Amino acid sequence: MNILIYNEFFHEQDPNERAHAVYPNGMHNAIADFLREDQELHVRTVTLANVEEITEDVLKQTDVIIWWGHCCHDDVPDAVAERVQEAVLNGMGAIFLHSAHKSKPFMRLMGTSCSLTWRESDDMERIWVTAPYHPIAAGLDRCFEIPADETYGEPFGIPTPDETVFIGWFTGGEVFRSGCTWQRGWGRVFYFQPGHETYPIFFDPNVQTVIRNAVRWASPVRRTADCMDCPCLPKAHKGTL
Ligand code: ZN
Question: What pLDDT does residue 16 have?
Fold first, then answer.
């Protein structure tokens, strides 16, 4: 399986930011490191500096893309976002982490505001498993805690998810749909809320379990490209998907 991780890699490069101390090599490498423990996963990383490497050909070879972005969403070219959207519609899986809720590809795939409420106050978050039967929740207890996290709160401006796998509760009282899935065309999409850049959240074993499970779940069952010459596509669609 080919996994492509995009991280804008902005906060972590500033030595004055807390994110630099937590992720000196960037969040993309922290995520890549634990995914690479699985010999079946071939993991490639891309940052904003080389975002144009996300070409149509690369996406055709990618089973699942993982996306982390925050303050550089607008710097991602529209053409790249469109390519990611198209690839998902044609079967590629996509996982959007934390502040990627406002990334161009996620907003294109959702078609809604994707807005939410937020504050930074080191609240503890308890993440409740609301769909224990879901493959993304495999191996987790009824809930798990993240000692400190940025608070995200409802209302979350997303289309009603196919499944809400997790709901987060924060010590300040907010609740949030922290893990949601959607089918978009032939592709599977998962949004997962934890992952603010100043906390070591991508080193958390439960968070790593969720992301590992999500990679497996989001990998393509079948892509439109597999069907160009087979009878399951109506003739009119051949070559157009
Ligand atoms: Zn954040």
Answer: 84
